[in-house]
Structure formats: structure tokens, C-alpha cells
């Protein structure tokens, strides 16, 4: 049976099985406002699914 010569540090041990990846945000073109926005989020102009539901950030 193989025995390690030295103890593995925590830094090396934690880097072995990493499957963390950065995912790009889903961006869609909004026809009502004419700009790009993230999916399932209220746009900066206050639109969601083509309908005005909130005051825009600039209006407040």
C-alpha cells in the first residue's frame, strides 16, 4: 500500500475536485424598451414581459 511522504496542505487538497465555473448571465433583447435586459428581471426602465410594472430608476 502506498504511503504519502508528506502531508498534503489544505490549499492543495481543496483545489483537487473543483467544478466551479462562471456562467454568463442570460441576456435577452426587450422589444418594448429596445434594449437588452437579463431574463426574468425588471428592466431599468420598469418593464417586465413588455408591460410597465414599476417606476424607472431615473424617475425616482
From TrEMBL:
<protein>
    <recommendedName>
        <fullName>Large ribosomal subunit protein bL32</fullName>
    </recommendedName>
</protein>
<dbReference type="Pfam" id="PF01783">
    <property type="entry name" value="Ribosomal_L32p"/>
</dbReference>
<dbReference type="InterPro" id="IPR002677">
    <property type="entry name" value="Ribosomal_bL32"/>
</dbReference>
<dbReference type="GO" id="GO:0003735">
    <property type="term" value="F:structural constituent of ribosome"/>
</dbReference>
<keyword id="KW-0687">Ribonucleoprotein</keyword>
<dbReference type="GO" id="GO:0015934">
    <property type="term" value="C:large ribosomal subunit"/>
</dbReference>
<comment type="similarity">
    <text>Belongs to the bacterial ribosomal protein bL32 family.</text>
</comment>
<dbReference type="InterPro" id="IPR011332">
    <property type="entry name" value="Ribosomal_zn-bd"/>
</dbReference>
<dbReference type="InterPro" id="IPR044957">
    <property type="entry name" value="Ribosomal_bL32_bact"/>
</dbReference>
<keyword id="KW-0689">Ribosomal protein</keyword>
<dbReference type="GO" id="GO:0006412">
    <property type="term" value="P:translation"/>
</dbReference>
